[in-house]
Structure formats: structure tokens, C-alpha cells
Write a structure and sequence with these properties.
2 copies of one chain form a homodimer. Chain A is α+β, with helices and mostly antiparallel strands. Chain A has helices at 12-26, 36-43, 96-111, 125-133, 149-155, and strands at 2-6, 50-57, 60-72, 77-87, 115-121, 137-148. Helix content of chain A is 35%, strand content 36%. The N and C termini of chain A lie far apart (54 Å).
Amino acid sequence: MISVREARPGDGAAILRMTEALAESHNTQDLLVAKPEDYEAALFAQQPIVGALIAEIDGVAAGSAFWHRSFSTNRGRELIYLEDLAVLPAFRRRGVAEALMRALAQLAVDRGFYAIYWFFMDWNEAGRALYAKLGAEIISGNSVGVLKDEQLRAIAR
Amino acid sequence: MISVREARPGDGAAILRMTEALAESHNTQDLLVAKPEDYEAALFAQQPIVGALIAEIDGVAAGSAFWHRSFSTNRGRELIYLEDLAVLPAFRRRGVAEALMRALAQLAVDRGFYAIYWFFMDWNEAGRALYAKLGAEIISGNSVGVLKDEQLRAIAR
């Protein structure tokens, strides 16, 4: 039995385990420096821009969906950007990701967000299959650009 | 002479012209329903999650960068997501996009954001060339998934 709930104070460490699992899948462990308290500070701020759902199996955190508020210039309204959809290795292939997607859809509907969107790597075939099953529109042929830290400062006018 | 400034009340119509120009480039005019007042409501809210820079040539709005606050689960900190980088057709090939990127980098540095990131379509070779010139890291092989409106409600658990 999978149950999904909103993150609570104290969930920072569980969320970090999810981020670590994703970083392993993407081979980006060197980029991961967040601490549990960073997540809790953002999640439980006065006017948070982020939120998280925790999926549990028998009361144990099995997966999470970490999202933030976004804005569509086409629609002129806020929507949800799904930053991370993570399932711990021991709990994969049991429907956790689907349960999280459905719960996030419910959260979006409840709060008046008209859409959810997310990016995923083209090699993520399991993800693509789930998203297609849920009826998502999928647009391929995208790249991401990043400017950070020293490089960001270097181009500041 | 290109000058870049932050958006002010009254800029909603100029921003909509930029969104329209992007929608033409992407052939997504049917998705564009935003009104100038939608942008102004978001930009000048009490705790805004979005911001916009306007590039002017001889005092005329030539381009804009529309961004929103985002959050990295790897870094545990907020960063800037560049939603739209737009230049009106009559002002292209004059350095407007580069001026906007540099001004956005300065804004990020000034406000303590460690990074800017954005997505772009792989067919956007002019964009890719600019981002490479600015030293951006570029990661290819991404897809975007979207669940909205009826489809979002259909999967809500």
C-alpha cells in the first residue's frame, strides 16, 4: 500500500536521500551539496515557492516529488514545475512514481494550478512510458543551458 | 545603443509583444492567451516569483528577459529560471539578446542567486551560438512533459 502526503518538518533527511538517488541515476553526485535543513528552510518559509510530496510504503519514505511554482508567459498564470520525481532503488517498479504524479495532479487541481510540467533526460525510458500512460504531452528536442558561479559573474555586465 | 532596465508598471503590453514574437518563432500562437494585466499582476505582486528586464534601443522596447525564481535540489538554494528571452524581429542581430543575458547575470549576482538556467529548442542555432559564446554549459537530449487542464484533472487521484 502506497500512501502520499505533503512533506512535514523533519522530512529534510528523507528528501536528501531521494536527491541522492536521482544524482546516482544521473551520475551528478559531485553537484549535490544540499543539506536537509536547506530543504526545510525552503519548504517551510513564510511564502514558499517550493513544495514536496512524500510517498510511503508501510510508513517508510519510498519516493518524493519536489516541485516549485513556475509561471507561463503564454497563459499568464502560475503552474507547477516538477523539479524531481524520485523513488528509492529498493521501492522501484511498485507504482510509487505513478502515485506521486497522481497526487501532484490532485494538489495542482486543489490549489488552482492549471498544469504541471517537467523536463527529463531522453534516456529515461521508464519515465517516458509512465508519462505517456498518464496522457502527458511530450515535446522532444530540447537542451538546457546553465550559467553559474564564476561563469555567471564573468558575464555580468 | 542598447539599454536594459527592470520592468515597470505599464510594461505589460510590451512584454506581451515579446511573448507574441516568441510564439510566432515556435508556432505556438494558439497557446497564447495571456493579457498585459496578467504580467503586471505577477510582476508587481507582494512577494513576486517572477521578474522581467526590458531592453530598449533609442527608448523603444526591443527585447525582454522574463524569469522566475526556481530551486535546485542539488544546491539547496534558489536560482533563476529564464522563461523567455525575446527580441522583436525588427531589432534582431544587434546584440539585444546578449545585452539581456549579461544584465540578467548582473541581476542574479546582485540578488545572491548562484545561477541562471533555461531550456531551448535544439533548432535554435542562433541561441545556442550565443549561449556558447557566453560560456554556458549546454546539456542536450532533454524532453519536456506537460499535463494540463482536462488531462491534469483526469489523472488526479
